[in-house]
Amino acid sequence: MTVLLFALGLFGLSWLVHFAWWRMHLPRHHTKALMIVYAGTPAAVVVVLLFAGNLGVFTPAEWASLSLFHAGATLCYLITYAGVEETSPSLVIIRALERAGERGATRADLQPCITNEQFISPRLDSLTRDGFVTLVDGSCRLTERGRSAAKAAHRIAVLFNLGTGA
Amino acid sequence: MDMDQAFLPVVIPIAGIVVDVASQIALSRLPLGVGHVRRQFLAFGCGLAAVVLLTLIFRPLLGAGLLEEAAGLLVSGLTYAFLGFVFFNALNANLSSLRVRLLKELLNREPHGLSATTLLERYGAAEILTARIGRLAAGGQLTQRGDRYFFQPKGVAVIGRFFAGLRRLLLGAAP
Q1: What is the pTM of this model?
Q2: How far apart, in whole angstroms, are the C-alpha atoms of residue B137 and residue B37?
Q3: Is the ipTM of this complex over 0.85?
Q4: d(C-alpha A19, C-alpha A48), whole Å
Q5: Which helix H or strand E contains A144, and what residues bound it?
Q6: Mean pLDDT in order along chain A per 10 residues (166 residues)
Q7: B32 CA to chain A: closest CA distance, Å?
Q8: Nearest CB to A146: which of B29, B103, B128?
Q9: Is there a contact between A142 and B7 if contact means CB atoms under 8 Å apart?
Q10: Which residues contact B16 (CB under 8 A, 6 or more apart)?
């Protein structure tokens, strides 16, 4: 029970630090800042326990369980936060249909919700900015980093028998 | 309880995710007549069953009292759920993330690559809209009557409201 409560409390404390920081001053690089908060907060707690001589409150196995719990919860939150920062095309379509209500919407009504400027170009730009793609003689080509990422994605698609999608 | 048994709360969720991944590999090759997302839910269920089963089997070794055992199951279950959620999203990103699809397309076009214009034609807004409407319809998230689409208050809509609320809370932004 103590492990469960401590794990929940630790994640909750990390979230409060995250919330307070975002409210005071929105960081430029959200993902990096989140990783600092969700790694730094438990590290700070461990340091406090160490100096207070209370590190033995949990056994090594319990610390391992707490670490795995917190790491899993943090990864989930990072994934969730991506949905806060960028709206997915599916959510935009659903919101448009909700607003349309009983009238519904045709494809032509929905088309303005999904534009190249809003969804496509920013993603293509981010691939270039993050070093996955480079422009050579007007052609987009993969960098070494991009090639590794693409091959890994391809292997995963083959392993899990994933088709094409959008 | 010896040292090996003490690490059961770590081993059990990891065993669960291994079952989840193995189940997904198997289910993806079976003619079940259901979509990709439902197969993922089935695989997650297999992993969760493994977590519950392993916890019940090793229950006498994990702790004293019903409350401690329930707490132990909750920690293992939640940890597995977190790992399962990461796996779920990793697979879906492979399928639907535009960035991943662009990378795979460029890999197929090596060494010449593709112009940005061609990429936008192949993966442009019209194609995204068609594919997303198809997926949402297949998942029952919208219905179609004639040439009109209609809102269904299901999973994606709930997720949308959650994100809108969290965005307002953290970023102070209107949805």
Answers
A1: 0.82
A2: 13
A3: no
A4: 22
A5: helix A144-159
A6: 90 95 88 92 93 87 92 93 80 89 91 84 82 87 92 91 66
A7: 13
A8: B103
A9: no
A10: B47, B48, B50, B51, B54, B76, B80, B83, B84
